[in-house]
Specification:
Oligomer: single chain
Helix content: 55-70%
Largest sheet: none
Structural class: mainly alpha
InterPro entries: COPR5 (IPR029289), HAT (IPR003107), TPR-like_helical_dom_sf (IPR011990), Utp6 (IPR013949), UTP6_C (IPR056907), UTP6_N (IPR055347)
Pfam family, one: COPR5
Radius of gyration: 36 Å
Number of helices: 34
Region (Disordered): 586-641
Domain U3 small nucleolar RNA-associated protein 6 N-terminal: 9-91
Mean pLDDT: 81
Distance between the termini: 51 Å
Subunit structure: Part of the small subunit (SSU) processome, composed of more than 70 proteins and the RNA chaperone small nucleolar RNA (snoRNA) U3.
């Protein structure tokens, strides 16, 4: 293995000599690159291969390419790219080929390979990469579309794109997205040919010898795809999607009309068809002979006329197809138009009137859904139509008696109207609703009572709620009860509430943290009370929440009446009580396996991208081999001091540390800071690392 690695290092020498000769890197930097490259080569040549080692290698080379580009721009030197950059690019491609052959199922790795080839002008290689990837991942339509799009847009080869789509349809004959993109590609091809022909004709060139079939120029290939897809994929949604694509191309008017006529003929009973036909009225322009509106008022009248035509289509639709789905489309259209901003008071009033009429008609036919009643009531309240809102909410509650949302809306209307029957209505709601869904109503009752009733009445509401609501829902009520007690009557009341609830499980950690915070806000903060609260909290959550133990220890250390001598005992109690990962991460000294840390760091490096060079400091754990994330950074020496440019003991010709930053009159560390615009972020998953404080660092005591 050593001979292979030595040969690969020697293959680097011509490019490194060029880098030094033209002044992009100093001799010390070249030596540091060789040292780091040797380490990376050993990692990818060993018998037990790990993906993160290949990721490290690729990221290192990408960082090197980025730095070479920046230094070229700085000194204005643009020659010798074949000997330097191309050599590095070919080496990275070889590493990608090995990695993708070893881990064929990793789509993110393949996509990283594709992005690298696109960025570093290796497009000749990209067709082979797509072919190899699709041979393995032929079950993913998105990859076929990506490959065809690249052939069409980057290589300008519509024939290759067409062949890819045809192959993809053999694997996925019922994939709507493939048909849509294939349809779009043929229309784009026809438009490109039409523009080419027009340019040749403008230049008065003979286009007779060129192949411009009239059928293709008219989009006949797209029509064939459309006809074939209709026989396989049913439904108005797919039909409308093809029509939307065809409308992007002005030359395909005949095709658009054909698709539109088929849509009306084949999907008359689909609400989506009627919705599309109605909205299409907004796009119809005035006739050429008609006078175009010029003033704002005239434009508002024209918009109003178009919206009325849309509503006329919707009125016909709800008569032909009187379903909830059809009324939903109609009402959504009215709400969308009403939400559009306009300075015309006339237009706003017309839109509001149409919306109210649509809601009223659907309500009379009992075809309004629950959420639409909510939209209607909110619209009425927003315009201060309290009386109408009360009528609507009463009718909605009658239809949806088991809906918490409807009861909430009814209570909101009564509260806004300052009705004296609010409390009675709360009681009535609890009779009709199941106890497990009543939590929002209990919270609303307590909040209303706090502002409208006495403290005794509000406390009675909270006590009823605690008895009525069971399980995890009661946790929220207890927290609100404690907050209200402190807010309304101070710390003594809050402590009394805490005492009354301390045996009423379940709890949340926030419940205990609130009472601890209330105690700390007092002028005479008692350590005995804090100990009591912490002990109660640890009894419930001490086995899973390491932060509670740490806060308890800090309290003993920092409080004027704390007892630091108790910290050791608390620490050992925590170590015995915490379970699994909580003990290891939260309290135990920071020891992690070397391979696990290498995996995290490697994934982060590749995720940092071709345009970003990491600047994180390495984490040195016991038994962990330290690696610098910058490409020309050296490892920790025997004395434990990180020397950036000190390559090895006895190495001559290396600049001292204080002179390293003066190389090229630039700050090497600043060049290794991360850029933005990272092309790899969307392709590689970032590994999340939980970083916990260690009590061993906070508490250096022996027990």
């Amino acid at each position: 293995m050593a001979e292979i690695i030595q040969e690969r290092i020697e293959d680097r020498l011509p490019e490194l000599e060029q880098l030094e000769r033209i002044g992009l890197f100093s001799r010390a930097e070249i030596k540091a690159i060789i040292k780091k490259a040797s380490d990376l080569e050993y990692r990818i040549q060993r018998r037990a291969l790990f993906k993160e080692d290949f990721i490290n290698y690729v990221q290192y080379e990408i960082n090197l390419l980025e730095l070479i580009q920046r230094r070229r721009a700085r000194i204005g030197y643009s020659f010798k790219k074949d000997e330097i950059e191309n050599s590095i690019v070919h080496r990275v491609q070889g590493v990608f080929r090995r990695a993708s052959a070893k881990w064929k199922d990793d789509v993110q790795l393949w996509l990283s390979y594709v992005v690298f080839c696109k960025k570093w002008a290796a497009k000749a290689q990209l067709s082979k990469v797509f072919s190899a990837m699709l041979a393995i991942h032929s079950n993913k339509p998105a990859l076929w579309i990506m490959a065809a799009k690249w052939e069409m847009e980057d290589r300008l080869s519509s024939e290759s794109a067409r062949q890819l789509f045809l192959r993809a349809l053999r694997f996925h004959p019922e994939c709507p997205k493939l048909y849509q993109e294939y349809f779009r590609m043929e229309l784009m091809h026809a438009e490109k040919l039409r523009k080419e022909k027009q340019e040749f004709e403008k230049a008065k060139m003979d286009v007779g010898a060129l192949d411009y079939p009239e059928e293709i120029l008219k989009g006949e290939l797209a029509r064939i795809i459309y006809k074939n897809s209709l026989s396989i994929i049913k439904g108005a949604e797919f039909h409308v999607s093809l029509l939307s694509i065809a409308q992007l191309f002005d030359f395909a008017k005949d095709l658009q009309k054909e698709i539109y006529d088929d849509l009306q003929a084949l999907h008359t009973d689909d609400p989506l068809t009627w919705d599309y036909v109605a909205r299409r009225e907004l796009e119809i322009e005035s006739q050429p002979g008609e006078e175009q509106p010029t003033t704002k008022q005239a434009k508002a009248v024209e918009v109003c006329r178009k919206e009325e035509r849309c509503c006329a289509v919707y009125e016909e639709a709800v008569k032909t197809l009187p379903t909830e789905a059809m009324w939903k489309c109609y009402i959504n259209f009215c709400l969308e138009r009403f939400a559009k901003k306009t300075n015309s008071q006339f237009l706003r009033e017309k839109r509001l009137e149409r919306t109210m009429i649509a809601f009223r008609k659907a309500h009379e036919l009992k075809l309004l859904l629950e959420f639409q009643y909510k939209q209607w009531i909110e619209l009425l309240l927003h315009h201060d139509f309290i009386k109408e809102a009360l009528e609507v909410v009463v009718a909605g509650t009658e239809l949806f008696r088991d809906s918490v949302t409807m009861w909430q809306m009814k209570l909101q209307v009564l509260i806004d109207s300052k009705s004296p029957d609010v409390a009675a209505l709360f009681e009535e709601a609890f009779v009709h609703l199941k106890p497990q869904v009543c939590l929002p109503l209990w919270i609303s009752w307590a909040e209303w009572s706090e502002g409208a009733q006495s403290q005794e009445d509000t406390e009675a509401v909270f006590k009823k709620a605690i008895l009525a609501v069971r399980g995890s829902d009661s946790v929220t009520l207890k927290n609100k009860y404690l907050d209200w007690a402190y807010r309304s009557a101070g710390y003594k009341k809050a402590r009394a509430v805490f005492k009354s609830l301390q045996e009423s499980r379940p709890f949340s950690v926030d419940f205990f943290r609130k009472i601890i915070q209330f105690e700390k806000e007092q002028e005479s903060c008692k350590m005995a009370n804090l100990r009591e609260y912490y002990e109660r909290a640890l009894r419930e959550f001490g086995s899973v929440d390491s932060d509670l133990w740490m806060d308890y220890i800090k309290e003993e250390l920092n409080h004027p009446l704390g007892k630091p001598e108790n910290c050791g005992q608390i620490y050992w109690r925590a170590m015995k009580m915490l379970q699994g990962e909580s003990a290891e991460v939260g309290l135990a000294p920071g020891e992690h396996s070397g391979q696990g840390r290498e995996t995290e760091k490697a994934t982060d490096r590749l995720a940092s991208g071709a345009q970003s060079i990491p600047n994180d400091s390495p984490t040195h754990g016991e038994g962990t081999h330290s690696e610098e994330e910058g490409f020309a950074m050296d490892e920790e020496d025997s004395d434990g001091e990180v020397n950036t440019w000190e390559l090895s003991e006895g190495l001559s010709g290396c600049p001292p540390k204080e002179q390293a930053a003066d190389l090229f009159n630039e700050d090497w560390d600043l060049e290794l800071k991360a850029d933005q615009g990272n092309p790899y972020v969307s392709l590689c998953e970032l590994s999340s690392r939980r970083q916990k404080r260690s009590v061993s660092q906070l508490l250096p005591l022996r027990c």
